[in-house]
Every structure is written in structure tokens, then in C-alpha cells.
Amino acid sequence: MSSERVSKTTSQKPNQHHEPITLALPIQESNSKCYNCQVKDAAAVCIGCYDSFCIDCIAAHRQKTLNDFGETIYDSDLFQALFRPSMPDKTVATSTLKLDPFSIKRKIDKWEEDLRSKVEMIANTARSDLYARIHDRYETIFKRYSPIREKNFDREKARRYIEQKLPSIKENLCGINSVIEDLPGTKSIRFESDKIDLVDKMKIVTIDDRASRANPKSRPQTGHSETELNLLEINKLSQAPFKKIENLGNGRAIGASDKFIVYTDDNDLCMIELSKPYRVVIPLQGVRDVCWCPEADYFIALTKKHVHILNPNTNELHPVDKIKLSSEGELWRCTYASDSGTLLLCYSQRGSPIEEWKLNSLKKTNFWEAP
Fold first, then answer.
1. pLDDT in tens, 98-109
2. How far apart are the first and last CA of the chain?
3. pLDDT at 8 over 50
4. Long-range pairs for 42-50 at CB < 8 Å and ≥24 separation?
5. 3-class DSSP state for residue 367?
6. Do 351 and 282 share a structural domain?
């Protein structure tokens, strides 16, 4: 039998099919869980990473992918050749380049991070308020439930009793809750949201250097703007605070950044991240003062004999051995001078001098005697 070579053409008979083609399209996967949340069933597959996502998470993943692709411009050879050699030192506060992508991008990222932190702080404060309202309702129910009321249980014993007996007393507790709901004096709890005024709006602006030189008044101000100085309105100080710290103990030192609060509580150094409901306790006795160093991104904690550095991102505390105690007595107060990147120290005795220490080199650079 002779063999024939059949040439491929674009025309096909009705009963013929084209060669199978594999397409990476969203598909239903009922037996798979979402790669992101690990809870809901996967509904789609990303054709880029081939991970499976639920309906809720696929949109967020798509947006993240778009953002990640936007970062590739900073890795291109042309960008590296033009801007990487002139990348300014992170310790330099202001760049002198007319187009400095690295400096602008850092400021954009910091602005976004600060705004996200503030929104999280507001939301967590509202959640904490909601938790408090729920526990108030629990206590009201417990006080009305006769077995707990007759035995005069405290809060912890009442909680354990409820956990043990809940299957058998659930209907009774639900009935008490219904009675409380129907009482005329029971106030309703609702969620309300107000528009947030973003005082510090962010945008990229173009500045004509020639006009700035011709009219010095039009130059960008390096200090605080009038808007920033007016943020503290005395007539609004009666509003509820964003964050409230209970039971400070005998501590007298406190320092804060835009994300953290560090304070002393008896013999401990305590740190609170404003976007989280709990605190971190770091054993350190005799803390007299705390200050924040924004350029270095850490706190300074001062004891009688030593200067300590607290990294709020890692919760690590280290003594600064190169800053030696002088013969003037015990350390008393500290403050950070952001314009010069120096730490100012004074001592506990009357008429104490002021010492200036450069933090990047840990050398004493100046000394002022009391008048």
C-alpha cells in the first residue's frame, strides 16, 4: 500500500476538528480552595500565576498584579542607567535633582502608608467600641440570669459558667436578650460614617526654577504650612480621642511617632502600634525619657546610666555603648533635633549642661554649659 502525504490546508470537512488548543481561562474548580483566603471555593484561575481564587479574592489579586507590573519600570535597564547612579542618600532630607524618581516614589509610598495607618486606626477604634458594647450587653444579660445573680459570680466565673452550660441555657439567655431589646430605655447602636477631609493631599507638581529665582516668595516652603499649623483646633478638643491608653501605672515618660506610642508602665517599656488593639511589653527598668527619631526610624529610651535604641518594627532593644555617661551625674532628659540629626542629652543635677551627640557616628559634637 502506497502512502500519501496529506497537505494541511485551511479548509476542513464538516466532520473534522482542528487540533486541540489549551486556553488558560477562568474555570470552575469546586474541589479547590481559594489560594488567598483558604476558605471559599476557588472559582477562577489566574493565567499569570496559575493559582486559584474565589470570586472575592480574584479582583484584589488582579489589582495587585497590575500594581506589581507598574513597578517593573524601576528595574528597566534604561531607568537604571539614567537614575541609579545619581540616587541620593536616604539620609539626605531634600534632593537637588530636578527629576528624582527615587525620592518622589519614597514620599508617595510613605504618604500612602501613613494614610492607610490612619484609616486602620480609626477602624480599629470603632471595632474596639463595638466590642465594648457587646460585652456591656453580656454583663446585662448575666445580671438578669438568676443562677449567676444568686451565686454572685464575678465576670470571669460568670464567663466560665456560661461556656459550660451554654447548650442547656441558650434559650433562657436569648429570651433575656429579647426582653432587653424591647425595653424603652435600651438605646440603639448604629454605624455612621462621615466624610474624611484629607488635609495633606498628594500630587506631583512641576516647578519653574526660573520663576522661583525671580520671585523668592513663590519658592516651596520647607517648614510647616499654614494649613498644618492650624490642624489643632482648640474648640474641637472635646471630641473623643482616636486612641486611649488605660492604667499607665507609675510611668512618666512617653514618646510617639505617626504609628507608635512608647511609654513607661512601672518597670516596663510599653509600645502600642496605633493600628492594633494590643501592646508590646519590653522589660526595662528606670526609663526616664523617650523620644522619636524619624530619620532613623527608631525610639531613644533613656535610663539613669544608658541610652537605648528601640526598633518599633522588630521590638528589639539595644544599649548604645558608645554614648558614655559623663561625670555630670545621672541622665535625665533627651530630645531629637531632626534638622541636624543629633540627640540632645542633659543630666539630673541642677544647672546641667546639654550634650549634643551625632547619631550616625555616635560622637559628641557639641557641649553647652548652663548660664
1. 888 878 888 888
2. 117
3. no
4. 50/24
5. strand
6. yes
Task: Work out how many domains the chain is built from and give that number.
Answer: 3
Contact 299, 310 (CB under 8 A): yes
Say whether pLDDT at 360 is over 60. Answer: yes
Cα-atom radius of gyration of the chain, to the nearest Å? 31
Q: What distances in angstroms separate CA 67 from CA 60, 61, 72, 138, one per listed residue?
A: 11, 10, 9, 45
Q: What is the CATH number for 354?
A: 2.110.10.10
Tens-place pLDDT, residues 156-202? 788 888 888 888 888 999 999 999 999 988 888 888 777 666 555 66
188 contacts 182 by C-beta, under 8 angstroms: no
Residue 370 has pLDDT above 70, yes or no: yes
Quickly tell me which residue has 525671580 as its cell.
Answer: 214
Provide the pLDDT confidence category of residue 289 given band limits of 50, 70 and 90: very high
Place of cell 544647672: 351
Task: Provide the domain limits for residue 171.
Answer: 89-186+196-220
Please report the sign of the dihedral spanned by the C-alpha atoms of residue 107, residue 109, residue 114, residue 115. Answer: positive
207 and 285 within one domain: no
Residue 356, φ and ψ in degrees, nearest 5: -110, 125
Asked which of 49, 75, 101 is the last residue of a domain, the reply is: 75
Closest CA to 142 of 187, 168, 183, 180: 180
pLDDT greater than 80 at residue 13: no
pLDDT of 290 higher than 90 = yes
Residue 52 near residue 45, CB atoms below 8 Å:
yes
**Angle at the Cα of 262 from the Cα atoms of 261 and 266, rounded to 5 degrees:** 135
- For the segment 22-35, the average pLDDT, to the nearest whole number, is 60
Number of CB atoms found within 10 A of residue 53's CB: 26
Within this chain, do residues 258 and 158 fall inside the same structural domain, yes or no? no
* Grid cell of 15 as nine digits: 466532520
